[in-house]
């Protein structure tokens, strides 16, 4: 075996020079000058050849080779030169030695091996499989014992070619396998005549068994003449542009129905870009096209019958759509007389030249299929001659263009009542999708007919039904009105009873005190007058507070809303609330950081908070804890629905006690006026109703959460205000009114003489001039005159055609900066404009303290004077 010595390198020089320089004396062939003429000639021949050749000489088969043979040896060159072949090719010598010996011994003239696989080593110890085309020929030599001196060897290595051919065969097999596995049909056409080179099984399936490979498209499919396929192939081959089509119609020989295919013609190009063939691919879309056609037909049918109310019109529309879509001879809908076994047809659809079945058709004359219909069976007959139910009457059926037909029975309450029939003049194999389509149309037809019948019945009943509905609605409305009136009278009775009781007590105190004052003054005993006056004044204030609570409940109290920091308001009341509820009750305030602003009347909110804390105190006779908590609440749609409030952002002020709690039936009435669970004399029942009215008038809500034995939480929800809070000024100290040294004129409008007298006294006591009138017409006349007016003081409810607000607005047309002070027992919408006063307007609720009225009049007059200056 070849073992290259250290530092040895393969020679790349010409073999002739190596042969001439080689020391042949050390080899079995001897020195060159001793070579026989045959050997010398043979060596010259191989060295001159460009073909891979070698000479194996003598019994030792000494190896001599040319340059073209050298790559076959690899790293064995030049070591192999002059070596016996058994050494140079030791790894394969056992395989090739018999051929050499046979030729040398004259037993074989020559040996040729076209594709011989040899496992050789030509690069050290590395094994490789190599393939050769080998030729062994004898070299005559007269001096040789057998007359044969050696063996000519021609060796062409074909390893790369064989591998490439195998790879190509593998690639082609893979391509064929891939094409075979493709979901659609595939064919490969070659040359301008479009000769078949390959077709897959799907192509054969759609085309039927034919001879394809080696034949042209025209030879295989002569029936395509006139359908445009030949021309398309020619155009694709000539232009090199691919062609695609969707749902392309195709008619093949031996098939009655038209097929539809999605088709691709893709040109095949060689390495130079020339078109050499066409790849054909596609899918059989016949079923898809038919199903889509049926779907479109169902849409058209639905559109046509949706507005039809006549059963006969619906039946004909169904028949027409079925007939045109399926391309049959006749379609109709008829009523069945199951006893007489007759079909009654008013109108059916017929193809041109086909007679109608309109009239009465005796079904038994056309076979026994009537029995199948009575059993509710869907009948599909492709050939009346071959079906036992129609064979005996086949001639009669064919005479009426019904060689094949489909019947769909209509069953109601277990009885055959009608049938949808589809007839065709020729024998026809009904496809599954066609039968499904017919069944679906029949179902829709039945539904439409039932709808039309029900609509007719409803129209007949509509007149009397409408009258009955109107009567029932009138009776229901009368009942509801009676119930509302009863509830209203009950509430009014409860309200007036409570008012009468409280006001009688207050009036008794006022009138009694005034009478005693009159008696003592007549007697000259003036020392008790102040005591009686204070008693009367105290009773009057309590009466005012009672009306204030009633107005709050009815949401007609006068509010002066402003941006309010509720945390600050609660903090300022902490000490007052603690003193009010007593030391036995712990007050805990939990104010939310970043609390939003509320737009409310601060005094009213303070009053509401105090009332809630007093109620909480009364619920804890043995002491406990009151928690006052504020928070920001963002109610989404779900939370707002749970709280029965509009969704949005709210500020909540909650008062929670650890008291006795309330059962649900008490909570349900808690906001009703004069409803109280306290003992007689300890509560008016107006506290929570006043809070409820205040919250609603402020755009918010009040909710109660209570559990018996655990406690109660009452929450006031107020809408968030996005405006800023004005800085609070220093508190104004109450002081007696002082006369002003600035002359001013005040117009007083009130229909009550006593009130006008009181207001005039207050105005004049301040040093101002008073003009008083008793109605809105007179007041407007003064406002529209040239008289200088610094302040208008007016009641809201006035005679004279306008209320106080309307009169003030009319006066402001000519006096834009006019200051207006409204005095009223309650605030109407016309006054407050849904809760807000215009700039320069103020309101004071009757009854009012004289000091408060005087202070308000003076401040507004001086503000007006300051603006003028």
- Counting DSSP H or I runs of 4 or more residues, the number of helices is 25
Strand content: 15-25%
Structural class: alpha+beta
Major β-sheet, in short?
7 strands, antiparallel
Strands, total number: 29
Low-confidence stretches: 1-5, 7-12, 487-492, 552-556, 728-735, 827-835
Characterize the overall form.
elongated
Mean pLDDT rating: 83
Q: From the alpha-carbon coordinates, what is the Rg to the nearest angstrom? A: 60 Å
Distance between the termini: 132 Å
Helical fraction equals 40-55%
Polypeptide structure, described:
- With 869 residues, this protein is an alpha+beta fold.
- It has 25 helices and 29 strands.
- The strands form five sheets. Strands 11, 12, 13, 14, 15, 16 and 17 form a seven-stranded antiparallel β-sheet that branches. Strands 18, 19, 20, 21, 22, 23 and 24 form a seven-stranded mixed β-sheet that branches.
- The model is unreliable at 1-5, 7-12, 487-492, 552-556, 728-735 and 827-835 (pLDDT under 50).
């Amino acid at each position: 075996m070849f073992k290259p010595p250290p530092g040895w390198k393969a020679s790349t020089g010409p073999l002739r020079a190596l042969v001439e320089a080689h020391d042949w004396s050390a080899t079995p062939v001897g020195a060159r000058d001793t070579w026989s003429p045959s050997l010398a000639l043979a060596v010259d021949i191989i060295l001159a050849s460009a073909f891979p050749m070698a000479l194996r000489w003598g019994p030792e088969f000494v190896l001599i080779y040319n340059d073209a043979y050298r790559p076959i040896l690899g790293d064995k060159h030049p070591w192999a030169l002059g070596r016996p072949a058994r050494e140079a090719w030791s790894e394969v010598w056992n395989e090739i030695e018999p051929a050499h010996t046979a030729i040398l011994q004259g037993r074989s003239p020559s040996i040729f091996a076209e594709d011989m696989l040899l496992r050789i080593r030509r690069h050290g110890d590395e094994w490789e499989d190599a393939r050769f085309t080998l030729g062994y020929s004898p070299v005559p030599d007269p001096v040789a014992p057998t007359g044969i001196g050696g063996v000519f060897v021609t060796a062409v290595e074909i390893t790369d070619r064989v591998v490439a051919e195998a790879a190509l065969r593998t690639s082609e097999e893979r391509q064929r396998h891939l094409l075979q596995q493709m979901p659609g049909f595939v064919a490969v056409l070659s040359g301008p005549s479009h000769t078949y080179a390959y077709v897959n099984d799907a192509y054969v399936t759609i085309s039927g068994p034919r001879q394809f490979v080696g034949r042209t498209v025209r030879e295989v499919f002569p029936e395509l003449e006139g359908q445009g396929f030949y021309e398309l192939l020619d155009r694709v081959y000539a232009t090199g542009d691919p062609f695609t089509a969707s749902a392309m119609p195709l008619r093949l020989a031996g098939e009655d129905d038209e097929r539809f295919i999605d088709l691709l013609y893709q040109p095949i190009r060689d390495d130079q870009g020339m078109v050499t063939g066409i790849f054909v691919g596609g899918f059989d879309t016949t079923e898809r096209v038919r199903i889509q056609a049926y779907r479109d037909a169902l849409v058209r049918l639905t559109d046509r019958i949706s507005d039809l109310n006549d059963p006969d019109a619906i039946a004909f529309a169904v028949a027409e759509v079925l007939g045109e879509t399926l391309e049959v001879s006749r379609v109709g809908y008829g009523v069945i007389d199951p006893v007489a076994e007759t079909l009654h047809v008013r109108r059916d659809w017929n193809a041109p030249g086909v007679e109608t079945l309109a009239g009465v058709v005796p079904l038994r004359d056309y076979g026994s299929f009537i029995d199948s219909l009575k059993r509710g069976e869907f009948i599909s007959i492709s050939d009346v001659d071959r079906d036992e139910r129609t064979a005996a009457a086949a001639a009669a059926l064919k005479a009426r263009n019904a060689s094949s037909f489909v019947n769909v029975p209509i069953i109601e309450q277990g009885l055959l009542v009608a049938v949808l029939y589809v007839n065709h003049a020729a024998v026809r194999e009904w496809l599954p999708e066609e039968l499904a389509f017919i069944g679906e149309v029949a179902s829709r037809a039945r539904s439409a007919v039932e709808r039309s019948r029900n609509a007719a019945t409803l129209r007949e009943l509509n007149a009397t039904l409408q009258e009955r509905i109107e009567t029932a609605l009138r009776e229901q409305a009368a009942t509801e009105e009676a119930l509302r009136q009863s509830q209203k009278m009950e509430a009014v009775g409860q309200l007036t009873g409570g008012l009468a009781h409280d006001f009688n007590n207050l009036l008794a105190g006022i009138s009694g005190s005034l009478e005693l004052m009159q008696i003592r003054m007549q007697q000259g005993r003036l020392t008790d007058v102040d005591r009686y006056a204070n008693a009367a004044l105290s009773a009057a204030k309590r009466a005012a507070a009672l009306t204030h609570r009633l107005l709050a409940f009815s949401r007609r109290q006068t509010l002066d809303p402003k941006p309010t920091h509720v945390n600050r308001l609660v903090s300022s009341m902490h000490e007052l609330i603690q003193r009010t509820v007593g030391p036995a009750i712990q007050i805990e305030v939990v104010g939310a950081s970043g609390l939003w602003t509320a737009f409310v009347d601060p005094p009213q909110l303070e009053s509401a908070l105090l009332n809630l804390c007093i109620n909480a105190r009364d619920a804890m006779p043995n002491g406990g804890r009151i928690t006052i908590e504020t928070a920001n609440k963002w109610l989404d749609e779900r939370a707002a629905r749970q709280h029965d409030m509009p969704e949005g952002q709210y500020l909540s002020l909650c008062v929670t006690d650890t008291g006795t709690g309330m059962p649900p039936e008490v909570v349900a009435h808690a906001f009703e006026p004069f409803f109280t669970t306290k003992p007689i004399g300890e509560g008016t029942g107006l506290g929570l109703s006043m809070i409820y009215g205040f919250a609603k008038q402020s755009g918010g809500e009040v909710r109660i959460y209570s559990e018996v034995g655990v406690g109660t939480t009452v929450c006031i929800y107020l809408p968030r205000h996005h405006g800023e809070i004005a800085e609070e000024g220093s508190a104004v100290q109450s002081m007696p009114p002082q006369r002003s040294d600035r002359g001013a004129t005040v117009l007083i409008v009130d229909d009550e003489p006593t009130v006008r007298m009181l207001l005039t006294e207050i105005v004049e006591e301040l040093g101002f001039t008073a003009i008083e009138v008793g109605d809105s017409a007179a007041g407007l006349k003064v406002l529209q005159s040239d008289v200088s007016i610094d302040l208008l003081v007016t009641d809201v409810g006035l005679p004279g055609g306008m209320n106080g607000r309307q009169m003030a607005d009319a006066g402001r047309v000519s006096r834009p900066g006019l200051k207006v002070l409204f005095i009223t027992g309650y605030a109407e919408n016309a006054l407050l404009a849904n809760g807000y006063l215009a700039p320069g307007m103020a309101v004071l609720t009757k009854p009012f303290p004289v000091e408060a009225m005087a202070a308000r009049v003076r401040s507004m007059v001086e503000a007006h004077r300051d603006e003028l200056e």
